[in-house]
Amino acid sequence: MKRSFFSGPYALWMVLFTIFPLIFVAFYALTDKNGAFTFANLAQGFENDYMKVLWRSIRLALECTAICLLLGYPCAYILAGKDFSRHKSLFVLILLPMWMNFLLRTYATMTLLEDTGVINSLLEKLGMQPKKLIGTRGAVLFGMVYNYLPFMVLPIHTSVKKMDERVIEAAQDLGANPVRVFFRVKLPLSVPGIISGISMVFMPSVTTFAISRLLGSGMIHMLGDTIENQFMTLNNWQFGSALSLVMMALILLSMGLLNRIDINKSERTNNW
Q1: Which residues have a Cβ under 8 Å from the Cβ of 225 and sit 6 or more positions away?
Q2: Residue 147 in contact with residue 157, Cβ under 8 Å?
Q3: Sorting pLDDT into bands at 50, 70 and 90, what band is 200?
Q4: Could you tell me which of 201, 73, 215 has the C-alpha nearest to residue 137?
Q5: Would you state the pLDDT for residue 85?
Q6: What 3 state SS string does 51-111 have?
Q7: Fewer CB atoms < 10 Å away: N or C end of the chain?
Q8: CA 32 to CA 28: how far, in whole Å?
Q9: CA-CA distance, 16 to 227, in Å (whole number)?
Q10: CA separation for the pair 28, 20 (Å, rounded)
Q11: Residue 137 — φ and ψ, nearest 5°?
């Protein structure tokens, strides 16, 4: 009885701010402006132009996730090392950007990449030709990696930190060299953190719109920009909801796939 009483506020929160909004999104996606049931909005979302925007969003999100993983795993692994005496202060520096507003971080990135920004000013002082950085695909990708890298480091660091040292010592006692210990013991044990990090980076990356709008200068259009435009500019809630529904389906599919990979990896690790 007590448990159900304390879970009441959370259930109410889920109903009001998760289930109801999803119902409204589905309603608008499956109706026209007169309220009649239709699949036309969803069909329009699969037109060639919108599919190009969707694939561009997925491709950029995958690239961002891959870069964050390549940078985040070594960083988290080093910070979690028991012999690394300064890991706490460096860990705080990695998390520090997360304490700042998302838009402020993106605006700060703009000051680096603008035509008269910090990087181009430095290039001029070094006698080099300024580069066109803002308004490019690389600028958007850089902003995404900068904003979402801590979300990759955090879960991997936690996963590595919680490893049972006895398992690692047992592998070493059985004659495994450091490379074999890493790939056969440490890496499989850190898979849950990797899966969590991939989920936490890919999902906001594929739905972002502020980064592409500010750093892409309107030249790099992603699905989040299209949805915002449908709601805020064109006042077409039906089509905007249909695109949102497609995006939610994509996110649920990726979550299911990652969860399946995590389960299979855990089963193989236990069998080993």
Answers
A1: 209, 212, 213
A2: no
A3: very high
A4: 215
A5: 56
A6: HHHHHHHHHHHHHHHHHHHHHHHHHHHHHCCCCCCCHHHHHHHHHHHHHCCHHHHHHHHHH
A7: N
A8: 7
A9: 22
A10: 12
A11: -65, -35
* Cβ–Cβ under 8 Å, residues 165 and 128: no
Tokens (6 digits) for 272: 């080993």
Mean pLDDT of the chain: 86
Residue position matching structure tokens 């077409």: 236
Distance CA 204, CA 202 (A): 6
Residues in the chain: 272
End-to-end distance of the chain based on CA atoms, in angstroms?
Answer: 43
DSSP secondary structure of the chain: -HHHHHHHHHHHHHIIIIIHHHHHHHHHHTB-TTS-B-SHHHHHHTSHHHHHHHHHHHHHHHHHHHHHHHHHHHHHHHHT-TT-TTHHHHHHHHHGGGGS-HHHHHHHHHHHHSTTSHHHHHHHHTT------TTSHHHHHHHHHHHHHHHHHHHHHHHHHT--HHHHHHHHHTT--HHHHIIIIIHHHTHHHHHHHHHHHHHHHHH--HHHHHHSTTSS--HHHHHHHHHHTS--HHHHHHHHHHHHHHHHHHHHHHHHHHHHHHHHHHH-
Model's pTM, two decimal places? 0.86
| Alpha carbon distance 262, 264 (integer Å) | 6
**Average pLDDT for residues 98-118, to the nearest whole number?**
87
